[in-house]
């Protein structure tokens, strides 16, 4: 609900300017999808360990890896590896939303990451019983 708190910032924007509404809406949509994926990864890390500090460090490491993997594409010589590192990047998909592009590829990516993390989480917890 943090995103809802930024709604007050839109009031002067619409009073004194002429913003592109669809760009704002796509940014919020991307933020919600990115947040869902990050929360799912965090829940998986929390299920894997009993220590909260270790879970936080695992989550931070995984999310930083997902965020910065797109920067590795400039070091890749293989076109297949370039496209793979670009596809796995949270940052590159989120940049599309910020620019006002709502691409089904980016929506599917965040939903698949969330689903995989939650399925692994549920499977691990079921296995622990």
What Rg do the Cα atoms give?
Answer: 17 Å
Main sheet? none
Secondary structure category? mainly alpha
Q: Would you report the number of β strands?
A: 0
Elements, N to C (H/E): HHHHHHH
The fraction of residues in strands falls at under 5%
When the domains are counted, the total is 1
Helix proportion range? over 70%
Shape: globular
The mean pLDDT is: 90
Description:
The chain has 129 residues and is mainly alpha-helical. The protein has helices spanning 2-5, 10-16, 21-48, 52-68, 79-87, 90-98, 104-128. The longest helix is centred in the N-terminal third of the chain and has 28 residues, at 21-48. Helix 3 (21-48) crosses helix 4 (52-68) and helix 3 (21-48) runs antiparallel to helix 6. The protein has one domain (21-128). The chain contains seven helices and no strands. The radius of gyration is 17 Å and the shape is globular.
